[in-house]
Amino acid sequence: MVTLKTKTEIETPSRPEYKPCVEQSVYPSNVAGVCLSTDVDTLLYHMNNARYLRELDFARVDFYERTGLYRTIRGKKGAVVQGACTIRYRRFVRPFTCYKITSKIVYWDHNSIYMEHRFITPKDEFVRAIALCRQRVINVSAEDVMQDLLTGKAQDPERGLGKPECPLEVLRWNESNEISSANLRNGC
Q1: Phi and psi based region of residue 44 (left: phi greater than 0; alpha: psi -120 to 50; beta: remaining)
Q2: Which of 44, 47, 68, 172 has its CA 20 to 30 A from that of 138?
Q3: pLDDT band for position 10 (50/70/90)?
């Protein structure tokens, strides 16, 4: 008799309980997935664009737990919400194709933590889609959160765990978001 696995069993392999790893907050963590028939667009040709964003939510939760980021924010009586997201699709993820999502923090400022997520097919290591997300930290400074998360390691330049310079794409993306916000405030 053949036993079929559910999507959850496929995407969430059993693993031992993990402890927060500071290095994963600035180095990528990975979550595996597979594009199933329920994930495809109406043409049954590739993964639906909305599914990418849903999968990012799962990857982000995994990242928060693995790194201790969420626990650190909550420990300071703060909260975190998705403030903005942009995604660029480079090549289809076809039905029944395995992929991994790598997630990492690329920058932070006083109010937000910026994360990059990449959808990569393991067979060819091609980046199928790349997303940039701003996590808005509420009631606490993102700078304080990251300092606590990286305590004792932030001054270790060899490990690269200090605050990175703001990537140009994050800088320009923030400018674009500010222009959009100003237009909305002015009734445009």
Answers
A1: left
A2: 172
A3: very low
Q: Which of 125, 61, 55, 114 is closest to 90 using CA atoms?
A: 125
Q: How many residues does the chain have?
A: 188
Condensed to tens digits (0 to 9), the pLDDT of residues 138-183 reads: 999 999 999 988 874 444 555 546 788 999 999 999 999 999 999 9
Which tokens belong to 124? 């060819």
Mean of pLDDT values over 62-73? 92
Can you give the pLDDT at residue 17?
A: 46
Contact partners, residue 77, CB within 8 Å, separation at least 6: 139, 140
Instruction: Please say whether the beta carbons of 106 and 118 come within 8 A.
Output: no
CA angle 105, 123, 38 (to 5 degrees): 80
Q: How far apart are CA 135 and CA 160, in angstroms?
A: 22
pLDDT, tens digit, for every residue of 123-140? 999 999 999 999 999 999
User: Is 115:133 a contact under the CB 8 Å cutoff?
Assistant: yes
Please give the sequence-ordered ranges of beta strands (E in DSSP) within 55-140, or none if there are none.
Answer: 79-89, 98-108, 112-121, 126-138
Task: Say if CB 84 and CB 177 are below 8 A apart.
Answer: yes
